[in-house]
Amino acid sequence: MPHVKPRKIVIDTDPGIDDAIGILLALASPEFSIAGVTTVAGNIGIETTTRNAGRLLAFAGREDIPVFKGAAAPLLRPGPEPLNLHGKDGIGGVGLPAPARQPESRSAVEWLGALLLKEPAGTVDIFALGPLTNIARLVLDNPDAAKRIGRIIAMGGVIYEAGNVGPRSEFNLWADPEAADVVVSSGLPLVLVPLDVTRRVRATREFTATLSASGKPLASMVADLIESYFETSTHQESRPLHDPCVMLFALAPDLFRLEDLRLKVSTGSTEQAGALTVDESGTPVQVATGVDGSSALDLLARTLASF
After folding, report:
1. Which of 48, 145, 173, 248 is 20 to 30 Å from the Cα of 19, by its Cα?
2. Is 1 part of a structural domain of the chain?
3. What InterPro entries does its record include (predicted)?
């Protein structure tokens, strides 16, 4: 089989327990070459999300990957309160080392623009795991660079089901709906992985036990992270593994059902903020609307156990 060159990616993230799982999955995947990690406020404040990104990279021994601090607040409105389900440290209290490398002095958006202008057009993908503030700011401030993005794969939104912060709103888009509107309406190549899909990817305690038994450090850490993501000590199924679905889609798109939908983003009241509407006058977006959840979990386990 011919060697396939790893795809260059940037991970834009607000770690976050499920962000952490997604980052560790990307680190274990030879299909990806991670150019850098950009951080954004979301699950918790920017200082903590940035520190958590550095801690994850230190744990994995990947101090070669730079971290760039991004937006501390949404484009136009106050930021959300931190999500309690991720714990005070944003990462479930799981033991991680201190960052081995300080965040870079350049801002996330400045660095991302320079990277996209340096690399051949279409060769850098962005995996967006949090609010879309950094990407929106890039679109607004440096459109020539933004046009060179290969593809954005973003965890966000909900199409046919109920939201998780409002009747029709999902947290990442709700946290900065103006940014979501900028990115969705930009016409850039975009794949959305919404709650309709991520709610179908939940781990069992048997799954985490298998990861722990593998003896592989990244697999064991993911097992600990998922354990912190169960609702109670007796619950047999974890909360949805939202953000790893971005990496899983990039690794195995055949496990997902895609629909081409025309979408609009609500920038209205708090209750409706970030809600997606399918509308003929909206912008064409590829949306994952189905997934083989058990096969996705198998891929997660195999990738982590092979690293």
Report:
1. 145
2. no
3. Inosine/uridine_hydrolase_dom (IPR001910), IUNH (IPR023186), Ribo_hydro-like (IPR036452)
Q: Is 242 a catalytic residue?
A: yes
Q: Are 169 and 181 in contact (CB under 8 A)?
A: no
Read off the CATH number of the domain in which 75 is found: 3.90.245.10
2 part of a folded domain = no
Query: For residue 266, is it within any domain?
Result: yes
C-alpha distances in angstroms, 53 versus 46, 117, 133, 152, 165?
11, 24, 17, 20, 25
Sheet holding 7-13, edge to edge: 67-68, 32-39, 7-13, 124-128, 149-155, 190-193, 283-291, 256-265, 276-278
Distance, CA of 155 to CA of 172 (rounded, Å): 8
Digit-coded pLDDT (tens) for 205-244: 999 999 999 999 999 999 999 998 886 667 788 999 999 9
What is the distance, to the nearest Å, from the Cα of residue 7 to the centroid of all Cα atoms in its chain? 17
Count of domains for the chain: 1
User: Residue 260 burial (CB < 10 Å; 0-12/13-18/19+)?
Assistant: exposed
Residue 294: domain span: 7-305
- Within-domain flag for 296: yes
* 75-128 pLDDT, tens digit each: 999 877 665 555 566 676 687 999 999 999 999 999 999 999 999 999 999 999
